[in-house]
């Protein structure tokens, strides 16, 4: 099943699940999650327009954004179709009950095969960049993730990541901080990446309690079979 910006098929968005309360989709790479300064088509408004078209809804369509993916990142996302669902899913995000798993290809090899990374991050809103700072710095926020090394070859490594917090650019900055810059990351790894390379970070799995049915839902999405992903055997999720 696919959604399109205006029903014409101009922007295909794979739909993984939909009911009266939630919409789960696979976000394409290089599409903003929501409207930004670029004014490029964004996922939220594309999906709203598609819901309006497919369901022949009059007036404005409600679709709640409860979590985000960076523009260059693809993978599974959930949206709320009702305010009740939005409230409950937002609570799940806040209480860390929205279980998010990613895979990334990085330069080098992490110092340990698996570990928990804990940093304090500060965002410069003028440049939209994030940096690791000391604990206690004003406006710094704690960032926590678990990683597991899945394989290494030819100077690259495949890493699985479980996020415990959802800070801007968190995975990219925390892995760069341990010497494992993401493949294709121009913002935090211009010294080792070439212009035009696609960022190798993908949201592969999402699990959460349905906002009304109270049952656990699990969804998966795998990155495209192209370099650098094709260099590795991706995990079963």
From TrEMBL:
Pfam families in the cross-refs: PseudoU_synth_2
Q: Which keywords does the record carry?
A: Isomerase
**SUPFAM superfamilies with a match to the protein in the record:** Pseudouridine synthase (SSF55120)
Q: Does the keyword Isomerase apply?
A: yes
Pseudouridine synthase RsuA/RluA-like domain location is 21-177
Reaction catalyzed: a uridine in RNA = a pseudouridine in RNA
Gene3D superfamilies (alphabetical): Pseudouridine synthase
User: According to the lineage, what is the superkingdom?
Assistant: Bacteria
Concerning PANTHER family, the annotation shows:
MITOCHONDRIAL RNA PSEUDOURIDINE SYNTHASE, PSEUDOURIDYLATE SYNTHASE RPUSD4, MITOCHONDRIAL
The UniProt entry's sequence similarity note says:
Belongs to the pseudouridine synthase RluA family.
- Record-given protein name: RNA pseudouridylate synthase
